[in-house]
């Protein structure tokens, strides 16, 4: 291809990826999905064309086929190195909540920062370093002492080795026990439910010492099959198991990036006949790490999700982000960059 050719963007036809080597496939991906950005920045399309006529020829009008784009992006998702980083929600009394989590649930305050100009404070708590564990990010907005949790958010899960001890500790500290320790229906494991000072529910699951004690976030959805397909395609999560309970009239699906005994997972709950939930303003989002926010955003769109922040650098930090909502409106933020900057972009 002669370098003097200056075709219009609409006249570029990209070839089949099967005829290209790996580096050419990457070039094709960005050319095929980034034409709009190239036009906006005034870039000349031919600058990105290789001289290999088999793989980068300019032909008659056309573009990369949607099927080829979808196949390659969604295949990439399956191999991306992803991890659930933290879950974000708002509280009305930060000191009170931190004290409860430390004294009753055994969490550690990992760090805290006060943003006086923006009038909010963030605190990160968990059971180990942020670079290796799923953690909690609490947000306190100055002057706001109460939030609406709504009926869509379900609970968090904690794996503990002695449920009775935790329950009695919560009771002694004035906490609320919403379900006393008891056997899971049809199983031999013990669970209990407690409530924190802001009304968030925690499910305690009795397990041998777990590498990821903060082990679950449960959200309710209106169409379980639709949600499973979305999280498999757009998020690259694996469907670990489903469980139907006709007596309670609900079905749950557990999805994640590894076995639930060793990793934090997402539990989606479908209640028979309920297609919509109120989300309130208390629960915010889950954050997930990815190797490429641009491809992540493209996969989300291809899988039927809505990108709420186009991928790009976060202001003032060495981190790239994108965010989306799933078919039920639950929000997720994706991060790529130097780890210590992941948590400098927050919700308040």
Automatic annotation (TrEMBL):
One of its GO terms (biological process) is methylglyoxal catabolic process to D-lactate via S-lactoyl-glutathione. Zn(2+) binds at residues 137, 155, 203. The active site is at 203 (proton donor/acceptor). CDD domains: GlxI_Ni (cd16358). It comes from the Eukaryota. It catalyses: (R)-S-lactoylglutathione = methylglyoxal + glutathione. SUPFAM superfamilies: Glyoxalase/Bleomycin resistance protein/Dihydroxybiphenyl dioxygenase (SSF54593). Pathway: Secondary metabolite metabolism; methylglyoxal degradation; (R)-lactate from methylglyoxal: step 1/2. Residues 83-207, 213-337 form the VOC domain. Keywords: Lyase, Metal-binding, Zinc. Its EC number is 4.4.1.5. NCBIfam families: glyox_I (TIGR00068). Belongs to the glyoxalase I family. This is lactoylglutathione lyase. The lineage of its organism: Eukaryota, Viridiplantae, Streptophyta, Embryophyta, Tracheophyta.
């Amino acid at each position: 291809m002669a370098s003097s050719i200056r075709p219009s963007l609409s006249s570029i036809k990209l070839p089949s990826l099967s005829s290209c080597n790996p580096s050419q496939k990457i070039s094709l991906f960005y050319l095929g999905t980034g034409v709009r950005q190239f036009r906006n920045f005034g870039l000349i399309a031919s600058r990105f064309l290789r001289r290999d006529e088999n793989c980068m020829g300019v032909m008659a009008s056309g573009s990369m086929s949607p099927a080829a784009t979808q196949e390659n992006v969604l295949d990439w998702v399956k191999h991306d190195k992803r991890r659930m980083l933290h879950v974000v929600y708002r509280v009305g009394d930060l000191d009170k909540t931190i004290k409860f989590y430390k004294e009753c649930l055994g969490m550690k305050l990992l760090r805290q920062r006060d943003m006086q100009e923006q009038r909010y404070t963030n605190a990160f708590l968990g059971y180990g370093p942020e670079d290796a564990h799923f953690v909690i990010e609490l947000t306190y907005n100055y002057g706001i002492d109460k939030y609406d949790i709504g009926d869509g958010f379900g609970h968090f899960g904690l794996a503990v080795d002695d449920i009775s001890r935790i329950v009695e500790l919560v009771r002694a500290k004035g906490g609320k026990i919403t379900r006393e320790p008891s056997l899971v229906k049809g199983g031999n494991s013990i669970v209990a439910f407690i409530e924190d000072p802001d009304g968030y529910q925690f499910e305690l699951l009795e397990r041998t010492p777990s590498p990821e004690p903060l082990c679950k976030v449960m959200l309710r959805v209106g169409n379980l099959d639709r949600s499973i397909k979305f999280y498999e395609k757009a998020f690259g999560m694996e469907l670990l198991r489903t469980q139907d309970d006709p007596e309670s009239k609900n079905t749950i699906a557990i999805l994640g990036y590894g076995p639930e005994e060793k990793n934090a997972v997402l539990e989606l709950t479908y209640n028979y006949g309920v297609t919509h939930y109120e989300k309130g303003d208390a629960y915010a989002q889950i954050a997930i790490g990815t190797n490429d926010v641009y491809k992540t955003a493209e996969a989300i769109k291809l899988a039927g999700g809505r990108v709420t922040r186009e991928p790009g650098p976060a202001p003032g930090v060495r981190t790239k982000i994108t965010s989306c909502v799933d078919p039920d409106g639950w929000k997720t933020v994706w991060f790529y960059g130097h780890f210590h900057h992941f948590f400098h972009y927050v919700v308040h």
